[in-house]
Design goal:
Elements (H helix, E strand, L loop, with lengths): L1 H6 L4 E5 L7 H9 L7 H5 L7 H4 L5 E8 L9 H7 L8 E2 L8 H20 L4 E4 L7 H7 L4 E2 L5 E2 L7 E8 L18 H5 L5 E3 L2 E2 L5 H7 L6 H7 L2 E3 L3 H4 L26 H5 L3 H7 L9 H18 L5 H5 L7 H11 L4
Parallel strand pairs: 3-10
Antiparallel strand pairs: 1-2, 2-7, 4-7, 5-6, 8-9
Helix pairs in contact: 14-16
Length: about 350
């Protein structure tokens, strides 16, 4: 099965049992603290997230899959290259994973193909594939199936691949022997906790999503709380900081798939250019991209914050901002007004 998976672009597969009962208490505590923020779906599904056989009746095992996503031409010093972007305030930063094709589409289709290949071997069986698209404890299942261990930033880490990979699952009605989990190797390192611009990692292995820049720029629909606007810097979609400083990502693997190669216009672009996309241009440029899901309004909201931070650092963006003070969106307009107040 590993060979079939690799032919489809997966880096590793494993098998987890459906008994996640030991994870339920932690999930409930996380929800009780409100760490899920606006992500109401996290609470609405309750413990179904930790009970695969309730989500898909008849499930007896979960096949987990891991797929590296660094573009194939990524340089060896890629973490330095990415961190250097933070020193160019006029440049908008899109998280590495979001610069190519929507991973949901890539993984789902390939998980389905893997399911079909398995069926050719063992006969028809019940299955359903997921990738960040249903109430599934993805990182927990991946850790239990030997794909890696949970880092202090809560992401999965692998000794041979760091954390720059996507996860997917196939719930199956076939009893399969579970893979052995691996030992954690974070030790005393706390680089991810220190690096988080908004202190969203409130304790080792505990993330308050409400403070996370990835959450704020992608999941959060309303005004971005003012306390987090300055720490956002020039990050306009997602944030990679906790991964960029992680020592294990010196082992991050490149993907052989062209799907994850960066699209033109999503890397190294100036904020004014990105803000100036009309809604039609936004939809055209983000077709088949994960970015499209936030919509044009939130895209401009995020960039308005970044423009304010650039202004504070001496960038000559005030005339551009002033030309948009009558923006049709009250949400965007509010952030433009804030941005203009950020004088150096």
């Amino acid at each position: 099965m590993q060979a079939w998976a690799r032919e489809l672009g997966f880096s590793q597969i494993g098998v987890a049992s459906v008994d996640l009962s030991s994870a339920e208490a932690g999930l409930l505590r996380w929800l009780e603290h409100g760490f899920h923020g606006d992500m109401a779906y996290m609470a609405s599904h309750g413990l179904k997230r930790a009970r695969p056989a309730e989500l898909v009746p008849g499930t007896l095992s979960v096949i987990t899959a891991r797929m590296d996503y660094l573009p194939k031409d990524t340089p060896e010093d890629w973490t330095t290259v990415e961190l250097d972007r933070l020193n160019r305030p006029g440049e908008g930063i899109v998280s590495v994973y979001a610069r190519g094709r929507d991973y949901h589409k890539v993984l789902r289709s390939r998980l389905q193909k893997l399911s079909e290949r398995i069926a050719q071997e063992i006969g028809a069986f019940g299955h359903r594939a997921f990738t960040d698209s249903a109430p599934v404890l993805e990182a927990e299942l991946a850790a239990r199936s030997g794909q890696g261990w949970r880092g202090k930033h809560t992401l999965l880490l692998n000794r041979e691949a760091g954390s720059m990979f996507f996860l997917g699952e196939i719930y199956v009605d076939v009893p399969l022997p579970a893979s052995s989990p691996v030992q954690g190797h974070c030790g005393t390192c706390s680089a991810c906790i220190t690096a988080c611009p908004t202190q969203a990692i409130v304790a080792p292995h505990k993330l308050d999503a409400r403070r996370c820049i990835s959450y704020l720029t992608i999941e959060h629909a309303g005004p971005i709380p003012e306390e987090f606007r300055a720490p956002m810097g020039n990050r306009i979609y997602g944030c990679d900081d906790c991964q960029l400083v992680c020592p294990w990502n010196k082992f991050a693997q490149r993907s052989p798939l062209e799907d994850f190669d960066p699209r033109e216009g999503l890397s190294g672009q100036q904020l004014e250019q990105l803000f100036s996309w009309t809604e039609a241009e936004f939809l055209q440029r983000t077709e088949g991209s994960p970015i499209r899901r936030i919509g044009h309004e939130r895209w401009q909201r995020n960039i308005a914050v970044a423009l304010g931070n650039a202004l504070r650092q001496g960038a000559d963006v005030a005339p551009f901002l002033r030309s948009h003070t009558e923006h049709s969106s009250p949400l965007v307009r509010e952030h433009i007004v804030w941005a203009l107040a950020q004088t150096g």
